[in-house]
Amino acid sequence: MMLDVDREQVLAHRIAAQGLHRDIADPGGLAVFDLGVQSTQRDTAAIALAARLPGPVTEESFVEDPRFVLAWTHRGAPHFHRADEIGRVTAALVPLDEDDAMARMGWQRKQVEAAGMSAVDGLFTAARAIRKVVTRVMTKGAVSEAVTKIIPDGLSYWCRGCQATHILEQLMRLAAIHGGVRLEAGAQPTALAPLAGRPRMRTTPDIEAATAVVRDYLHLHGPATPKEAADFVGTKTAIAKRMWPEDLTPVRFAGREVWLSSGDVAALENPPAPDLARLLPPWDPFLQSRDRAVLVPDRARQKEVWKILGNPGALLAGGEVAGVWRTKGSGRKRLDFAITAFDPLPPATRTAAEEEAERVARARGFADLRVSWG
Question: Which of 93, 226, 255, 340 is the one with CA 20 to 30 A from 211?
Fold first, then answer.
C-alpha cells in the first residue's frame, strides 16, 4: 500500500534533511552542499550556514574556507560547492542533448536560436573562449570584453546601458564552469578566476552525474515530481525523466503521486518536530523547492516571499514560513531588522527570532542590531 503523507510531514522532513535542526557542526557535512548553496547576494550563503550550524559563522571565515568553491552552476546561478566535488558538478551540467542545452539557456533562448549554431555548439564555443581568456583573476567586465572579441557575433549583444558589446549573459554563466572557471568569493565587483588544477573540458554527457543531481533534489526537497526537479535543473520535464533515479519510492501527497529516495521513506514517515525558529536569507536552500505552494499555500504570501526583484528573507517558525524580514545597515556599526509576521506569533517565537537576528548580524560583521516587528 502506498504511503500517504500530509503537508506537515513533508515540511518537517525537508527541514530535517536540510540541517535546520543544527545537528551538524561541520559545514562540509551539511547535505545542502550536495546541490550547492546559492549566493546571489553578498552574505546570503553565510546567513544560510548561520541558520544551520550551531557555532558562529562569519562571511570571511566561510568564503575563505578552501573546502568550498563558488561558481556559476545550476541555472547559471552562483553556488558554493564542496571544492573536491566540483568535477562531479561540472559533469552534471553537460547537457544531455540539444533540447536540454536550449532549455538551459532559459530567458536567452531566442538569442541563441538566432546565432546560427546549435545551443550545444554555442555553449562549448563560449567555454573554450572563456578558458583561453581567464588565466588569472579578472573582473567579469574584463572577461566579457575579451571573450566577445573571439566568439561568433551571434553569441553577443549590444548593451545600451554599457554602450558596449557583451557575450550573452546566460551563455557566459552556463559556459564558465565548462571553461574551468570559478567565481572569486567575496569579490566586488564580480570576478572570475581559473579553477584549481584547471580540469580539462568535458563535452560528453554524464547521465550518472545528472541523475545524482535529481537524487539530491529529491532528498532535500522531496517528495517531488519530475517537473519540479526539471525546474531546479533548468530543463524540460522530459529531460528530467531521463535523469530519473531508479531507487525511488512513490508516495501519495495532496492527491497526487510524488517520489523520494527509498532510503528517505522512514525519515518522511516520522520526521522530528520542527519546533524551531530560523531567519533564512533570500534564495536559502529551503526556499529552493519548486513546489512553492507547499511551502507557502497562500498566493498573496507567496508574492511576499518570492518577488521578481529584491527578495526578502523568510522567517521559518514551527515548520511554517511565518513571515519575511529585511535589514538595513547603519554604516558597519548597527544592523536594523524589520520582521513582518504573517500571523500573530507567541512571545517565545518572537524571542527566538530575535536571537536568530543576533546570529545574522554576527555573520554579517555587525556588533549591534535593532529589531522591529511589523
Answer: 255
pLDDT (tens digit, 9 = 90+) per residue, 79-116? Answer: 999 999 999 999 999 999 999 999 999 989 888 888 88
Note whether 156 and 172 are within 8 A (CB). no
User: Kindly report the CA angle at 275 between 273 and 277, in degrees rounded to 5?
Assistant: 140
pLDDT tens per residue, range 248-274:
999 999 999 999 999 999 999 999 999
Helices marked H in the chain: 7-17, 44-50, 59-63, 86-92, 98-104, 109-113, 119-133, 140-148, 169-176, 207-221, 226-233, 237-242, 265-269, 292-295, 299-305, 347-363
Residue 228 CA, chain-centre distance (Å), reads 14
Tell me if 7 sits within 8 A of 294, measured CB to CB: yes
User: Which sequence spans correspond to the domains of the chain?
Assistant: 26-194, 277-373
Distance CA 358, CA 353 (A): 9
Give the three cell numbers for residue 341. Answer: 509576521
Quick check: 318 and 278 in contact, CB under 8 A? no
